[in-house]
Amino acid sequence: MRNVHSVAAVGALTALVMGATTAVATTASAAPNVTPQGVCGKAYKTVNSVSVGSLGTVYLTYNSANGQNCVATIRTDPGSVKHMSTYIYVPATDEWAGDDGNYTSYAGPAYVYGKGYCVSWGGNIDNVYVSVENSNCASLKERRVTEVR
Fold first, then answer.
1. What separation in angstroms does the CA of 26 have from each of 10, 49, 71, 104?
2. In whole angstroms, what is the distance from residue 63 CA to residue 55 CA?
3. Pseudo-torsion of CA 58, 27, 97, 37, nearest 10°?
4. Could you tell me the strand order of the sheet in which 128-135 lies?
């Protein structure tokens, strides 16, 4: 009886692995449609980006309704698993978020509250790293425009 259970377990494990392989292949083929809004959310507008060589792009997005920034690192040519990361940091509040791992198409999303603050952000694909320091600064003060005559 024990061998029968082992054979059944191996069969179930094989089916599980085959299913996972199919899921990865499906994800990789669907990956060219990955967008910053698809990763971060429809309400997030792209406000900045930086290329990761020819491998992809790190996108900085912002949601004006909730004051959140989001970053995502998206590969140009998805496919085999590669080490990727994305991060965002608000120096004024010491708040940060990130994502780091082995992915087929993108790393992220990573969210922080950034309304009225400068943000530092970046990411990597394989051994190509990029970062942008103290960018997209905004002021919490209301600005008055005075007409000069």
1. 24, 27, 24, 11
2. 26
3. 60
4. 95-103, 82-90, 119-125, 128-135
As a whole number of Å, the end-to-end CA separation of the chain is: 96
The C-alpha R_g of the chain, in whole angstroms, comes to 21
- The half-sphere exposure of 25 on its side-chain side, counting CA atoms within 13 A, is 6
Count other C-beta atoms under 10 Å from residue 90's C-beta: 21
> How far apart are alpha carbons 7 and 4 in whole angstroms?
5
Residue in the structure block whose two tokens are 């792209």: 46
Rounded CA separation 81/35 (Å):
18
Round to whole Å and give the CA distance between 37 and 47: 12
pTM of the predicted protein model: 0.73
Q: What is the pLDDT of residues 75-121, one digit of tens each?
A: 999 999 999 999 999 999 999 999 999 999 999 999 999 999 999 99
CB atoms within 10 A of CB 39: 23
In this structure, what are the phi and psi dihedrals at residue 109, rounded to the nearest 5 degrees? -80, 160
CB distance 102 to 96 below 8 Å: no
